[in-house]
Amino acid sequence: MYLPFVGLEVSALLLVLLGFAVGVLGGFFGLGGAFMVTPALNILGFPMSYAIGTDLSHVMGKSIVATSRHHRFGNVDVKLGVLMILGTILGVELGKDTILHLERTGTVDVTVRLVYILLLGLTGSYMIYDYTRFHERRKARKEVRGHLGTVLSRKICSIQVPPMVALPASGIGAISIWAILLVAFGTGFLAGFLGVGGGFIRVPALIYGFGVPTTVAIGTDLFEIVFSAGIGAFLYALEGKVEIVAAVVMLVGASFGAQLGTMATRHVESMKIRLYFAATILSASVSVLLKQISYVYNIPELGDHAVYVILGASAVMSFIIVFGLFKNAIGYRIRWSREHYFS
Amino acid sequence: MIEAVYAFLLKIFTQNPALYATAVVIVMLVEGLVLATLFEATLRFLARKTGR
């Protein structure tokens, strides 16, 4: 299939499959998936700016599909999402300014990569620790303080600076608007600083910062991504850096994948979702680490391996999610048949 | 035929970036909504057919 804006001949099936894989991850984890799509399009021959612009466009469409399904499941807290958007916009601006300042000092690449590695590595490690602690407590039949009870979220929710707002969809009785804006500003700053959509920062921030249930954090983040990716797509398209034909084709696969990914959140317990999420961001962290080593020691092959690590990990994770969903669906069908035909 | 359409659109869009940017957002929005509705309708149809 010919792509007129980048002047490339690319297999449509490959684009649909790429969209499908990232759609599954997006619907399941609440991520845009730029960490997977941008390098993949780059490998296919897209110049980097086109890869980012095309990715943002298809992410917008995919997030609409995933958000609509999450909304039906009651997983989208619109009030929280709108407040988060306001804080995020301000944070992204400051993050971008910091990057421009670092660019003038000539230390931008190293700083961004190190922050990326540390942030993803620490978040992923903490989530795995949280999962194992939960698992051990459950095994020992001790009281499990569910995902709503982290120390940080209790502290943030106890800030009594008016105006206060109730978020029933997230199970929060009253929380200061300033606390929401502050966390959104922080995650927005990191997103702008790292040049990413920020799903992998916002989802843990919503879970651990506000005590939002995992599936609601995912749905609310996707709601926010619709707007952030939409603005990003518009800005890149203004520069002519969006290959719309590729975005349209990818969205076909992505929308199907996003529906499956979203449905899978109903069949996988929330702590398991966090474990998978942690594994995905840890592999992204390893990928950036390999890239950094390849720059420092001038080993270009290692840079290629870094791309394959993240693409491979994402593909495996998509497979695990879809396989789990179908296994569960078949199990349900067998149970249903037994109950209705043999009882 | 497709190449001619591509060339025509490419000419219009490169002359007017704002039109292209608006078109990108509208196309993604409409495609996303249409695909979401289609999937929903398929699920409803299957549920009705299987009685679940």
Helices and strands, with pairings:
The complex is a heterodimer of chains A (343) and B (52).
Chain A: E1 2-3, E2 8-9, H1 12-29, H2 34-43, H3 48-72, H4 78-105, H5 108-139, H6 151-157, E3 164-167, E4 172-176, H7 177-194, H8 199-210, H9 214-238, H10 244-264, H11 270-296, H12 300-341
Antiparallel strand pairs in A: 1-2, 3-4
Helix pairs in contact in A: 1-3, 1-10, 1-12, 2-3, 2-12, 3-9, 3-10, 4-5, 4-7, 4-9, 5-11, 6-8, 7-8, 8-9, 10-12, 11-12
Chain B: H1 2-15, H2 17-50
Please describe what this structure looks like.
The complex is a heterodimer of chains A (343) and B (52). Chain A has 343 residues and is mainly α. Chain A has one domain (2-341). Chain A has helices spanning 12-29, 34-43, 48-72, 78-105, 108-139, 151-157, 177-194, 199-210, 214-238, 244-264, 270-296, 300-341; strands at 2-3, 8-9, 164-167, 172-176. In chain A, the strands form 2 sheets. A two-stranded antiparallel sheet of chain A has the order 1-2. In chain A, strand 1 (2-3) and strand 2 form a beta hairpin. In chain A, helix 1 packs across helix 3, helix 2 packs antiparallel against helix 3 (48-72) and helix 3 packs parallel to helix 10. The longest helix of chain A is centred in the C-terminal third of the chain and has 42 residues, at 300-341. The relative contact order of chain A is 0.19. With 52 residues, chain B is an all-alpha fold. Chain B has one domain. The longest helix of chain B is centred in the middle third of the chain and has 34 residues, at 17-50. The A-B interface holds A 2, 4-5, 57-58, 60-65, 68-69, 72, 230, 233-235, 237-240, 242, 244-245, 247-248, 251-252, 255-256, 259, 336 and B 2-3, 6-7, 9-10, 13-14, 17-18, 20-25, 27-29, 31-33, 35-36, 39-40, 52.
